């Protein structure tokens, strides 16, 4: 289901809609509550009031659910107390990295420090730390991109997005180009899960226009205008459903993410890898 976000004339950054809807849907999935009304009843019961025979409530949660309103820090904290980990979803560093109006080179150190340690580890030199030289960034080539691309996590996606933006700003669009297939696989894996399903196609369009387009190598780029994104999401979920039916068990969320990434990486056959890999085209073809 494609969620239409506010147009570019709105003062609200579209990234706010992404993170707000993702937070809302994650809470809805974890609680099993059927509606925004039920969620507001649970987390903000004081919003429901009566005056005589009239009952009313603020109906803020419907706005959270469609991305038109972002919850305040106090509410995020209240929900976090009941659902640990929920605050990280709306405050994840990925969302700031996707704010393309924010200059990447000025913010990169702060953003890197917000990544979880095991992800940071992949872009710093181990030898420098052992020699007492402090943290030194690893030279960015295809090796750290490949290591990050094996992790089905939002932190890995955030780090790859950050490296692509950094490389483009430094005049190294080839690195951004090589990051695209890795970013795309992780995006597919997460977009096929329930919390991100409502923003999946719109988030893909955002990546295609603002992040994937940064990559250029030997006169080629990834346009992805005809990429079968939604069809692949359906196939990924069918794959998990078949695995569950065959094994007679329910695959938990983390294992499902890893299994989907393995499928896209060719572990279950090169045909799947070839069918889902993005195609690079020359500038003449994309113009």
Structure description:
- The chain is mainly α and 287 residues long.
- The protein has two domains: 1-91, 434 Repressor (Amino-terminal Domain) (Orthogonal Bundle); 93-286, no CATH class.
- The chain is 59% helix and 4% strand.
- The chain contains 17 helices and four strands.
- β1 (48-51) and β2 (54-57) form a beta hairpin.
- α10 (142-149) packs parallel to α12 (173-191), α11 packs antiparallel against α12 and α14 (229-247) crosses α15.
- The chain is globular, with a radius of gyration of 21 Å.
- Residues 1-10 have low confidence and may be disordered.
Structural class: mainly alpha
Low-confidence stretches: 1-10
Shape: globular
Mean pLDDT: 87
Tell me the fraction of residues in β-strands, as a range.
under 5%
Task: Give a quick account of the main beta sheet: strands, pairing sense, barrel closure.
Answer: 2 strands, antiparallel
Number of strands: 4
Order of helices and strands: HHEEHHHHHHHHHHHEHHHEH
Radius of gyration: 21 Å
Helix content: 55-70%
Tally of DSSP helical segments? 17
The largest sheet has its strands arranged as: 1-2
Tally the structural domains: 2
